[in-house]
Design goal:
22% strand, five-stranded mixed beta sheet, alpha+beta, 7 helices, Metallo-beta-lactamase, Chain A
Length: 253
């Protein structure tokens, strides 16, 4: 059963999952940099402060904020990080406009029927609202993340363009460690259906499901052993290969 309580988990040495309302942000700490990947929901902030304090650091010590994509539930702390700490998020150019307007996202299916069709999602959506989902303010991002880029922080982070969920979605690979942060290109909890296990997010929040399914191949090519999704628990049972195989078998709701 998925644990929806706000929590911090060290999912790998120096890699911290900040989980609130089924939405994850990740703080990666290494000798050569402190990187936040995704900015969760606004009320994830206490988890970030607590994790930084455990490392003897503050938000002003974060070297980079990288966004997998621009949806409201992944940019929730951006405004505070920009205004209070001058930490401008970096994103693929394809999602720069979405970071400014994080509720204006393309999706294949109408969202309204999903809670009725999938009542298991209702408690999750309620927690998302309590965590500040309705009050996210967009920001101007630095659109300088491109496919194949190596970000020379936290041991080296490779950007992998994985369009489909959004036009500019990127995953991030800690290449030397075989750790893949998939954002919403592959999740283990779908907030729109409440279903768990590896899957592509429902069409209620996915712009182009055909592209999203094709992007699974790009994730598989990394051969990562640990998968850290934007929603849900970490996955290490057979690594990204098994996660992709399961996600493909399930299609898109």
């Amino acid at each position: 059963m998925t644990d929806h309580r706000p929590r911090v988990s060290e999912v790998a040495d120096g890699v911290f999952q900040l989980a609130r309302a089924g939405v994850n942000a990740y703080l990666v700490a290494a000798d050569n940099g402190l990187v936040l990947i995704d900015a969760g929901l606004p009320r994830t902030w206490p988890l970030l402060e607590r994790t930084l304090a455990s490392l003897g650091a503050r938000a002003s010590d974060i070297d980079a904020l990288l966004l997998t994509h621009g949806h409201f539930d992944h940019v929730g702390m951006c405004e505070r990080l920009v205004e209070e700490h001058r930490l401008v998020p970096r994103v693929h150019p394809g999602d720069a406009e979405l970071v400014r307007h994080p509720y204006r996202y393309a999706h294949e299916n109408a969202r309204l029927p999903y809670p009725f069709r999938y009542p298991g999602a209702v408690p999750i959506l309620g927690r998302v609202v309590v965590a500040g989902a309705l009050g996210v303010t967009g920001v101007r991002a630095d659109p300088t993340i491109f496919d194949g880029d190596m970000i020379p922080l936290a041991g080296g982070i490779v950007a992998i363009a994985t369009p489909g969920h959004t036009g500019g979605h990127c995953a991030f690979l800690l290449e030397a460690r075989g750790i893949l942060l998939t954002g919403d290109a592959l999740v283990t909890l779908d907030p729109y259906t409440g279903r768990t296990g590896p899957r592509v997010v429902a069409r209620a929040a996915t712009a182009r499901s055909d592209d999203a399914l094709r992007s699974l191949s790009l994730l598989a090519e990394t051969e990562a052993s640990l998968v850290l999704p934007g929603h849900g628990e970490a996955w290490d049972r057979g690594g990204i290969a098994s996660a992709v195989a399961i996600a493909r078998s399930r299609g898109v709701d």
